[in-house]
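ok, trying the design again with the full structure, not the truncated one.
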């Protein structure tokens, strides 16, 4: 994922948060409407005796999902806020957070449209330099024979990344048989 793709997630995330907020409102309304009905009529044997609890659980699960999306959005905003140049920061906020057109950004910054594109490229390069993970720049996995399960595959790939960057993977797992793994005892 490039820095541009990373920042372009803001709009879909905002749309997703709005949709989730609507869903949450409906779930809360449904949870508040769940009531117990007392009657002398015979009860069906398959009724759900935990309606209220299930409704509350659905609300809590939706809130959890929504919080995860908020965290993702906050992480992207932190990447923008990490820019030291206020012009670059302003440009990225205007383009990705507010969704302004390039022409409007150029007018607001009192620069030409061509220069806005140059500033944009500079801002993206600084975002990438500051640590936004760009997945298209990561090496393709070359897994050893001992990587036979999900956790072992993850360990093997982390060892590969560490080796590619001249680092070692600190681990408590003595089962990792790789020269890039540093066993902590």
């Amino acid at each position: 994922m490039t820095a541009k793709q990373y920042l372009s997630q803001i709009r879909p995330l905002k749309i997703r948060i709005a949709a989730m907020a609507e869903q949450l409102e409906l779930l809360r309304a449904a949870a508040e409407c769940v009531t117990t009905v007392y009657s002398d009529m015979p009860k069906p044997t398959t009724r759900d005796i935990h309606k209220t609890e299930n409704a509350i659980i659905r609300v809590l699960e939706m809130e959890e999902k929504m919080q995860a999306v908020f965290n993702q959005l906050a992480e992207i905003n932190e990447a923008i806020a990490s820019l030291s140049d206020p012009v670059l920061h302003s440009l990225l906020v205007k383009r990705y957070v507010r969704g302004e057109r390039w022409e409007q950004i150029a007018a607001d910054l009192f620069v030409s449209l061509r220069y806005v594109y140059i500033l944009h490229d500079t801002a993206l390069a600084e975002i990438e330099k500051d640590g936004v993970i760009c997945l298209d720049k990561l090496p393709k996995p070359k897994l050893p024979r001992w990587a036979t399960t999900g956790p072992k595959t993850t360990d093997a790939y982390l060892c590969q990344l560490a080796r590619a960057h001249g680092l070692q993977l600190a681990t408590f797992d003595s089962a990792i048989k790789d020269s890039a793994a540093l066993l902590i005892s």
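Keeping the full-length input from now on. The mean pLDDT is 84.
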